[in-house]
């Protein structure tokens, strides 16, 4: 268990520093490490933990707490939480003053502009991994793409799509149809 705690601490600290603007940019690496490399989770568990962490109020770092709990119980959850929060908090505390002082310099402006396409690419890769992890039939894939289109093209709150997905899943289970 000490090995799992050490791995959790190191990886969560790295993801903390990598996740400028939120955990979504690191989801593909979190998936790779926790599902493929360490076998702490299955694809389905990862997607379920991700969905739960997005649905719950609070920081997006809850995904790491769920992974830590799965990997090493309550100590794993505590280590993951601390390793997620401490490095980014220290970096923010130390870097905020420097960044405010140097925000108009050309170098800082270039770095800021370069982070946008990198973040978009990482978010797209995370979306691909999440869809690939769970979408095992055409019905699920069509519903996922339709939900993405509704969110993109309308002002409908995504919570309604989540509720609809839960209802469809429950009805499917109740009927024994296994649509999804």
TrEMBL record:
Topology term for the membrane: Multi-pass membrane protein
Transmembrane portions of the chain: 6-26, 46-67, 73-94, 115-131, 158-177
GO molecular function: chromate transmembrane transporter activity
Gene Ontology cellular component annotations, sorted alphabetically: plasma membrane
UniProt subcellular location: Cell membrane
InterPro entries, A to Z: CHR_Transporter, Chromate_transpt
Top-rank lineage group of the source organism: Bacteria
Keyword Zinc-finger: no
Assigned keywords, A-Z: Cell membrane, Membrane, Transmembrane, Transmembrane helix
Family: Belongs to the chromate ion transporter (CHR) (TC 2.A.51) family.
Protein's name according to its UniProt entry: Chromate transporter
Source organism of this protein record: Pseudomonas spelaei
